[in-house]
């Protein structure tokens, strides 16, 4: 009998695989001889290569996997030797022979001497990292021949910047700060290129050198720049280019401590709407500071000391909510006007006439104004159940209370967006983000520790860093190679929402690697043996594959005659077949897979109503006519049997008209599915943003909030045991056909201790922006964490703004704008325009309640039962009867159909941690 076309295709694929394997077994690992020679020559220029790189022996770097050497096929494409403790130079060897080299990372070694010009022959080089070394001399002009180079960082270079650097059209990060460079800043002149050709540059750091001449006006052609530092050159002269307002994406501009021409207060800053940090220190600028400077929407730090600003300082009352530091030391300011909402962050006026007029005790006449100057510098908290362990001399205690040898160094943030070092949230978020990114790269990182943050003399924020290994006492050389590469080349970039930590550089300490044994050398006879074994191995593989092919078709013929049983990943709950007992359900039923398959038309696309983090959601109709929503778990979201059982029992135990009801569940044929009542009118978030057809006026919003408050109060005070929801937000407040409120998504819920006291959780869960900072910082979970989230929700309902949007945190926005002496507390500009056209009776009491709910200390927040009572009072003041059962008698619809609450924008994770994309937290 002949084989089908599919069978012949499989045979052809197997034969192709045999040929490939046969070829690979014979030649894999045969490193290009030129690459081998080049590596040996480089190693010969290092004084301690034999002790630090004992496996750099033999003649096959790729096949023998030399430390820090990475290959594609038989060509070396990456050399990563960060923190290996190497000493010597880079003068030996024909490094230009490494023609496929893309990454060269020699950072944090004791290497010195000049950079060899033949680096310019590495046409595929994308990253050259020599930070933390002691290379000196001129920057080779030949580096301008590297068309793919994307980053180049500082060392101890001298001389001038070669114009050829302008040829690096792909460069995004040029850090030549803190060198000994001289001369003028090169620009294009028709013959040579210059810095103004770096049109893809994001970070241009030229600070703390000895440049002379003026700032070229054409430098402002680099319109993608986010960071520009020219400060502390002292000899830059001439005017500051007025067209600097072309750099509209600038986040940091530092030009202080130069010898620019005297000038009046510039006006170009008004166009820099993205600016967070502005340093114009000691620049001979005079005049009265305009209020517009303090209104820049993202501004955080203004360093303006040592100028001639004079007259009256009037910050105004509508200054930017992000502004945290105004340093005006040593100017000529004589008076200070405080109007409206006075500025209450850090203001330094030391050395101004105003501080010589009997005001020397005023806070602004003191340089140190931290909220608590005596507070200890931040240090990562240890999660030890008792006393921390005693470690060996070269080991440290990790945050998880294990002893290990960490990778250590110092992070230097060049333009930190905050000045309050007492706010631990900045550092906790950075620790978690760094750990998550390392782990996402499959690096064995257990935890991150940050210690002793402080501002250095260059306005850098310096933070000590320790990276601890996971599952072992010490990192391998390969581990350090990857971690060092991520830090040295800014491959790691903090992805903490709201907080833009800006550019940084990392100064590492040498890592004390364990002594390792050199890899055995392969002699000529060994080499012959390897080839012989390879050929023999290839023959064996060929034989095995032929046998496999014959057996494959025989087995296929047999199996085609037999029905194929379903192979579930785990069995249905059955007391006889598993140690996990069937859940004890209250008012919910068990569905089989076949039942739900029929109800949802075989999970057809027609019934698909959305996708969330838990999986897809399908609409269905029970035989009784009841509409349901079936949430079907995807493979990556499956839980353990016990965990799934526990959550089902929790959900089935909760019954309240303002909580979404669990109809049942399915745990069958390898599936986990949850069946809920169908809620047709979308979410409160949809209504506030206009995405649904439901529009809510003031009275309707109050009624929706009352229903939500009652549902949450039930969880806290009447459920047995009490339950903390942990994810109160507008997308979890659903509206049914009569606009009754339904609080949904108890996937993150957690029962409280029977005594009602808070409990410590091992992982903080919830949605950033709504998340209680006290819970986040202490991991102490109480029902007051839900109260805080509800307070954020109250503010979201009157503003129709996301809790976190474009760097603005709604709690801080309202607190900064509130003026209780004005109508509507002066919050007109923050209100949802839909509300602005109606009467808002009870509004002031509403805002007072919201701010009580978001008090920093949980003990100062009201319980949810009190929140219910207060909302009822507000409703009466607005002329609404709290006992009325529905808001539908006055609801209105747009022509378009409502967006469904289970659609893709809203994650219905059943057991999720902190979301990583749109979810954010803003420290207060």
UniProtKB/TrEMBL annotation:
Main subcellular location: membrane
- The regions listed as transmembrane in this protein's record are 529-553
One family name in Pfam for this protein = LRR_14
Which CDD domains does the UniProt entry name for this protein? STKc_IRAK
Membrane topology term reads: Single-pass membrane protein; Single-pass type I membrane protein
* Protein name per the record: non-specific serine/threonine protein kinase
Q: Where is the Protein kinase domain positioned along the sequence?
A: 603-875
Skewed-composition ranges (Polar residues): 886-895, 914-924
Region feature Disordered, mapped onto this chain: 882-924
Q: Which InterPro entries match?
A: Kinase-like_dom_sf (IPR011009), Leu-rich_rpt_typical-subtyp (IPR003591), LRR_dom_sf (IPR032675), LRR_N_plant-typ (IPR013210), LRR_R13L4/SHOC2-like (IPR055414), Prot_kinase_dom (IPR000719), Protein_kinase_ATP_BS (IPR017441), Ser-Thr/Tyr_kinase_cat_dom (IPR001245)
Which superkingdom does the taxonomy of this entry point to? Eukaryota
Question: Which family, according to UniProt?
Answer: Belongs to the protein kinase superfamily. Ser/Thr protein kinase family.
Signal peptide span per the entry? 1-29
Q: Which organism is it from?
A: Leersia perrieri
Q: Recall the GO molecular function terms of this protein's record.
A: ATP binding; protein serine/threonine kinase activity
What GO terms fall under cellular component here?
Answer: plasma membrane
């Amino acid at each position: 009998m002949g084989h089908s076309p599919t069978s012949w295709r499989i045979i052809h694929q197997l034969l192709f695989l045999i040929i490939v394997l046969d070829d690979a077994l014979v030649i894999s690992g045969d490193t290009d001889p030129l690459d081998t020679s080049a590596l040996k020559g480089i190693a010969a220029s290092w004084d301690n290569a034999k002790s630090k790189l004992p496996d750099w022996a033999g003649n096959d770097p790729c096949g023998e996997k030399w430390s820090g050497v990475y290959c594609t096929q038989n060509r070396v494409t990456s050399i990563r030797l960060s923190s290996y403790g190497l000493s010597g130079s880079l003068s030996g060897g024909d490094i230009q022979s490494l023609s496929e080299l893309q990454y060269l990372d020699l950072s944090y070694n004791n290497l010195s001497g000049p950079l060899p010009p033949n680096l310019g022959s590495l046409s595929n080089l994308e990253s050259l990292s020599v930070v933390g070394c002691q290379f000196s001399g001129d920057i080779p002009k030949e580096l301008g021949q590297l068309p793919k180079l994307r980053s180049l960082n500082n060392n101890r270079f001298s001389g001038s910047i070669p114009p050829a650097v302008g040829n690096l059209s792909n460069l995004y990060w040029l850090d030549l700060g803190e060198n000994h460079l001289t001369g003028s800043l090169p620009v294009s002149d028709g013959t040579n290129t210059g810095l103004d050709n770096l049109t893809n540059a994001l970070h241009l750091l030229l600070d703390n050198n000895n440049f002379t001449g003026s700032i070229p006006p054409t430098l402002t052609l680099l319109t993608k720049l986010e960071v520009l530092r020219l400060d502390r050159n002292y000899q830059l002269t001439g005017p500051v280019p007025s067209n600097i307002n072309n750099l509209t994406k600038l986040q940091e501009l530092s030009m202080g401590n130069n010898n620019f021409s005297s000038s009046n207060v510039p006006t170009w800053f008004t166009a820099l709407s993205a600016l967070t940090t502005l340093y114009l220190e000691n620049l001979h600028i005079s005049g009265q500071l305009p209020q517009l400077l303090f209104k820049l929407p993202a501004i955080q730090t203004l360093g303006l000391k040592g100028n001639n600003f004079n007259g009256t300082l009037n910050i105004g009352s509508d200054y930017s909510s992000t502004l945290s530091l105004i340093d005006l030391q040593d100017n000529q300011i004589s008076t200070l006007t405080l109007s409206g909402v006075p500025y209450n962050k850090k203001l330094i006026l030391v050395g101004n006439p105003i501080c010589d007029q009997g005001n020397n005790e005023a806070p602004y006449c003191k340089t140190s104004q931290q909220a608590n100057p005596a507070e200890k510098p931040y240090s990562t908290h240890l999660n030890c159940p008792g006393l921390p362990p005693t470690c060996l001399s070269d080991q440290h205690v990790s945050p998880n209370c294990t002893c290990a040898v960490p990778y250590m160094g110092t992070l230097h943030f060049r333009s930190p967006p905050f000045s309050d070092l007492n706010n631990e949230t900045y550092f906790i978020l950075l620790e978690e983000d760094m750990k998550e990114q390392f782990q996402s790269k499959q690096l064995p990182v257990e935890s991150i520790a940050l210690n002793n943050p402080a501002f250095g003399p260059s306005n850098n924020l310096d933070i000590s860093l320790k990276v601890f290994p996971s599952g072992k006492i010490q990192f391998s050389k390969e581990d350090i190679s990857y971690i060092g590469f991520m830090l040295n080349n800014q491959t790691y970039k903090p992805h903490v929402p709201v907080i833009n930590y800006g550019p940084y550089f990392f100064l590492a300490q040498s890592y004390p690697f364990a002594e390792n044994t050199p890899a055995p050398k392969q002699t000529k006879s060994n080499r012959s043996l390897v080839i012989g074994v390879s050929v023999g191995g290839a023959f064996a593989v060929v034989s095995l594959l032929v046998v496999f092919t014959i057996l494959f078709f025989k087995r296929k013929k047999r199996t085609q005659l037999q029905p194929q049983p379903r192979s579930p990943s785990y069995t249905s709950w059955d007391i006889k077949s598993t140690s996990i007992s069937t859940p004890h359900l209250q008012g919910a039923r068990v569905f089989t897979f076949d039942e739900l398959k029929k109800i949802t038309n075989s999970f057809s696309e027609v019934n698909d109503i959305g996708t969330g983090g838990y999986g897809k959601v399908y609409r269905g109709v029970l035989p009784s006519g009841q509409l349901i929503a079936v949430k079907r778990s995807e493979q990556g979201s499956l839980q353990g049997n016990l965990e799934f059982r526990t959550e089902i029992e929790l959900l089935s135990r909760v019954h309240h008209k303002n909580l979404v009801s669990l109809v049942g569940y399915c745990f069958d044929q390898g599936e986990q599915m949850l069946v809920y009542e169908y809620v047709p009118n979308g979410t409160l978030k949809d209504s506030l943003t206009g995405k649904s057809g439901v529009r809510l006026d003031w009275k309707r919003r109050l009624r929706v909030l009352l229903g939500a408050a009652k549902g949450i109060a039930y969880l806290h005070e009447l459920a047995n045991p009490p339950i903390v929801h942990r994810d109160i937000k507008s997308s979890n407040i659903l509206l049914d056909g009569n606009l009754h409120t339904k609080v949904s998504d108890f996937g993150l819920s957690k029962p409280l201790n029977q005594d009602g006291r808070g409990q410590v959780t091992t992982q903080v869960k919830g949605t950033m922006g709504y998340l209680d900072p006290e819970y986040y910082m202490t991991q102490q979970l109480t029902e007051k964490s839900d109260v805080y989230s509800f307070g954020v929700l109250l503010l979201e309902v009157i503003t129709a703004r996301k809790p976190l949007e474009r760097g603005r945190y709604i709690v801080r926005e309202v607190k900064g704008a509130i003026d209780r002496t004005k109508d509507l507390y002066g919050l007109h500009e923050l209100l949802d325009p839909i509300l602005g056209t109606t009467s808002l009776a009870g509004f002031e009491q509403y805002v007072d309640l919201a701010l009580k709910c978001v008090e920093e200390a949980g003990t100062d927040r009201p319980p949810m039962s009190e929140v219910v009572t207060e909302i009822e009072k507000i409703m009466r003041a607005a002329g609404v009867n709290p006992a009325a059962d529905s808001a539908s008698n006055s609801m209105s619809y747009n022509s378009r159909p409502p967006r469904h609450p289970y659609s893709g924008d809203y994650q219905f994770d059943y057991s999720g941690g902190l979301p990583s994309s749109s979810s954010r937290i803003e420290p207060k």
